[in-house]
Amino acid sequence: MGLKRFTAGLAVLALPFSPAFAGETFTTYGDVGRYALPAGAAILSLTQDDTAGLRQLLASGAVTLGATYALKHAVDDTRPNGGRRSFPSGHTAWAFTGAAFIHYRYGWEWGLPAELAATAVAVSRVDGNFHRWRDVIASAAIAHASAYFLVDHLDENVTLMPMIGGRKPAFGIVGALRF
Question: What is the number of structural domains in the chain?
Fold first, then answer.
């Protein structure tokens, strides 16, 4: 599997970010995307013969998901739809585990499509009335903090991060360039 094909595959995962995918299809995208992104990250590591990266993905994922599910049980916040354990979002944590790993390990060229796909998973959770913005933002932050400390960079020149914030949710990208 070539790098361009892998990146294109992740970009296809970001297509449901469009409002045309609202409703049940968008919710299904979030259900599939939560597993597709970490699985894609593992496949990428295997195709690159990057066993050190695969170990880092597993470590970062264990910390992210452990923290997420510990917080879910400790906080036990009510979901917008009336369910339990809203904070933080498990779907978003799974998706950003893969996206943050790809971004930190392999650089922004691969990370940007993965980050967009993970952001679409987060938006699907809010759009489906399963979570609030704070739930998905917390999950993305946990995944990125875990990857920041546990994943070694192979390309340290450019870093791009998703940004979600503001009174009315605003989306963007924040970047850093090292000379």
Answer: 1
- In the chain, the amino acid numbered 108 is W
Tokens of 140: 């993305």
Distance CA(146)–CA(105), nearest Å, equals: 12
Structural domain for 7, as ranges = 3-177
Length of the chain: 179
Give the span between the Cα atoms of 11 and 37, in whole angstroms.
11
Query: What's the whole-model pTM score?
Result: 0.75
**160 membership: H or E segment, kind and range:** strand 158-165
CA 136, CA 21: separation in Å to the nearest integer? 19
- Cβ neighbour number for residue 61 with a 10 Å cutoff: 23
Higher per-residue pLDDT: 119 or 8: 119
Q: Residue 178: pLDDT above 60?
A: no
Chain position carrying tokens 């979002």: 89
- CATH code for position 19: 1.20.144
